[in-house]
Amino acid sequence: xxxxxxxxxxxxxxxxxxxxxxxxxxxxxxxxxxxxxxxxxxxxxxxxxxxxxxxxxxxxxxxxxxxxxxxxxxxxxxxxxxxxxxxxxxxxxxxxxxxxxxxxxxxxxxxxxxxxxxxxxxxxxxxxxxxxxxxxxxxxxxxxxxxxxxxxxxxxxxxxxxxxxxxxxxxxxxxxxxxxxxxxxxxxxxxxxxxxxxxxxxxxxxxxxxxxxxxxxxxxxxxxxxxxxxxxxxxxxxxxxxxxxxxxxxxxxxxxxxxxxxxxxxxxxxxxxx
Length: 274
Ligand code: ATP
Fold this sequence. Notes:
Keywords: ATP-binding, Hydrolase, Membrane, Metal-binding, Metalloprotease, Nucleotide-binding, Protease, Transmembrane, Transmembrane helix, Zinc
Strand content: 5-15%
Cofactor: Zn(2+)
Shape: globular
Bound molecules: adenosine-5'-triphosphate
Protein name: ATPase
Number of strands: 5
Oligomer: single chain
Domain AAA+ ATPase: 49-193
């Protein structure tokens, strides 16, 4: 295909097999996404369109990766935003940003000739927190705008818009967001178990030179409680140790040092945050 042969360029899209572990979450997500793919059948049966999917779970477990893979799977354009981007001092700015985001999704899909768009909003709890009755909050307007946009999504729309939102704190969300027709599909993206950790390690070790003594199974065993993001860090830190030791390959001892380092980093983060 005429491209440079010197270096394989990383694809800009992400597929589900680049996400380690999370088998149940992936399966549930794919089942839900088939609602978008099989649009005609859904329409014929008069099934209510799937508008919002909520990904819940601790930081660094792959929620953003899931949303990106979902976009690739459904051949949708992908737009991402974070809840904190909508928090502004001036009333109405957040709401108009929500409007802009939906407009941008429609424009981008039209421009690229695609039939659907996935909008991913990380930290949805920042704008979707419980509205507390009397007390006027600036971002009530932002949340209301989001609800309005969601209510305006129809099965026959072109492009079809799907919202995916992520939060570590589902219990903080306003119930209006969770109602049928809104974020009514929830997928838990939990910390990986040992098997999941091993598959994540394998994914991130793919492009790294490993010494013969490396035992990733053992690394998976020793990293209880680590997220995917932590595991990616372990491999990266191990490579840095190898460099420092002027080794050309990552050895098991580098991995052990890296595990300690990532574990310590996590501990100091926690101590300084409180
Ligand atoms: P946050 O809530 O903090 O935004 P998140 O759940 O969205 O976290 P991601 O942004 O998807 O987490 O993951 C961060 C990085 O960690 C990824 O870019 C990837 O390198 C790695 N990672 C996390 N989970 C996995 C996984 N299941 N498989 C492979 N890599 C993962």
